[in-house]
From TrEMBL:
PANTHER family for this protein: ALANINE--GLYOXYLATE AMINOTRANSFERASE 2, MITOCHONDRIAL, PTHR45688
Role of this protein: Multifunctional aminotransferase with a broad substrate specificity. Catalyzes the conversion of glyoxylate to glycine using alanine as the amino donor. Catalyzes metabolism of not L- but the D-isomer of D-beta-aminoisobutyric acid to generate 2-methyl-3-oxopropanoate and alanine. Catalyzes the transfer of the amino group from beta-alanine to pyruvate to yield L-alanine and 3-oxopropanoate. Can metabolize NG-monomethyl-L-arginine (NMMA), asymmetric NG,NG-dimethyl-L-arginine (ADMA) and symmetric NG,N'G-dimethyl-L-arginine (SDMA).
Native source organism of the sequence: Cryptotermes secundus
InterPro entries in the cross-refs: Aminotrans_3, Aminotrans_3_PPA_site, PyrdxlP-dep_Trfase, PyrdxlP-dep_Trfase_major, PyrdxlP-dep_Trfase_small
Protein localization: Mitochondrion
Record text on subunit structure and interactions: Homotetramer.
Source species, domain of life: Eukaryota
Reaction equations catalysed: 2-oxobutanoate + L-alanine = (2S)-2-aminobutanoate + pyruvate; oxaloacetate + L-alanine = L-aspartate + pyruvate; (2S)-2-aminobutanoate + glyoxylate = 2-oxobutanoate + glycine; N(omega)-methyl-L-arginine + glyoxylate = 5-(3-methylguanidino)-2-oxopentanoate + glycine
Protein name per the record: Alanine--glyoxylate aminotransferase 2, mitochondrial
Family according to the record: Belongs to the class-III pyridoxal-phosphate-dependent aminotransferase family.
Amino acid sequence: SRAVPQMPNFEYQPKKYLGPSYEKMQNIWATNIISAFAPHFKEPLLIHDGKMQWLFDHTGRRYLDMFGGIVTVSVGHCHPKVSEAAAQQLNTLWHTTNIYLNPKLHEYAAKLTSKLPDDLKVVYFVNSGSEANDFAVFLARLHTKNSDIISLRNAYHGMSYVTMALTAQSSWRNSLPLAPGFHHTMNPDVYQGLWGGSHCRDSPVQTTRHCDCKPDECNACDMYYGQLEEIFKYSLRAGNLAGFFTETIQGIGGVVQFPKGFLKKAYELVRTNGGVCIADEVQTGFGRTGEHFWGFEMHDVIPDIVTMAKGICNGLPMAAVVTTPALAQSLKGAYYFNTFGGNPVSCAAGLTVLNVIEEEKIQENAHVVGTHLLKKLAKLRDQFECIGDVRGKGLMIGVEMVTDKETRTPLPSNHFVDIWDDCKNMGVLIGRGGLYHNVFRMTPPMCVTREDVDFAVGVFEAAIQKHQKVFMK
Ligand code: PMP
């Protein structure tokens, strides 16, 4: 068997762990935390220190974070400039200020909206992605005076009462009545979907599965679009559309990309029917897709409402909804208030995140390192039968694991977990997603280097090589 790949050097002395013992921590989890969400890995990881793209456990062991704290860490764990800005603000004022003028809130609002095109110039600050999408539903309904909302199957938009109804993956919906007024159209999934179309997605790598038609004659986009038209025919009363929600690359759904042109046609149909278009950029925003600052730009569309969270503040609670003055006018006479939304500590950090993205050429790094990583993973895909698809853009990457390329049957969970766990044991933390939980998600802090991702690919390859003997005949 091959040697374990060498971890790149990183000059940093992790802080000494002074918390409760590992066993006590597990006890507290079982007794006081009891969660619907179990910790990752067979032996859960105890993380207590982080620096840029690296995390450290209680023994001082170092891990390459290829998941970026679930995409929340955009420019690096405890990035010194972001930490400094937050600390300075902590020593100045942290009273929630949105009933007063405050320089951090106002400076940040101006800077953040300068990153968006056209009329997208009005921002509302909230604290989480779910709250942002909740607010976007509220705004779309208020503006259009209609109630129906369409989202895509396999979408993830949050866990509140309203956003769980927007979310359309059974594993993320509870079997309790959900909010009314939501419709889900067929997901234009070019790998697992009915009509293929993988060569029509915007990625430097293509899948091994193509639909039967030639790329310039591909009709997959039209077929998926036809399903959206059917929703109008069968599910919606004419004249009652409020909005159409999508991620611009589906994150939790397994880094699913749509065929080029789908969103553009969908937006036209939605607007013709009186609805507004909402882009959920919670995972795709802030340069993660590399070529563009916002995911919607790769679809050549301009939404009416953009929601953002996670990487916006490098891990501190902060989220935002940006819209046009015309839509914002609809709030006149309505009421909305959010105590912690736009608090000065998060605003100071968020402002610094935007500056760091510019100063340290973070978006360019996501593009260059991400494309390099995608191409290396595509080589592995050609080598291993169990890697069905490699997709994504920039540092938003999915690797779909299957039993074989022909049937594309999801790799059973125990085999997936064996590979996943082994990567962790060799020092690389990867995310998991997809409707069948069979997609490795690689979305590291965007300061990750070429050398780091070479190491990650080496580890991933070694883990697959070791375990595929079990599930491959
Ligand atoms: N939208 C998307 C695309 C997400 O990935 C998430 C979180 N995974 C949310 C919304 C909800 O964000 P939060 O967990 O901050 O409520």
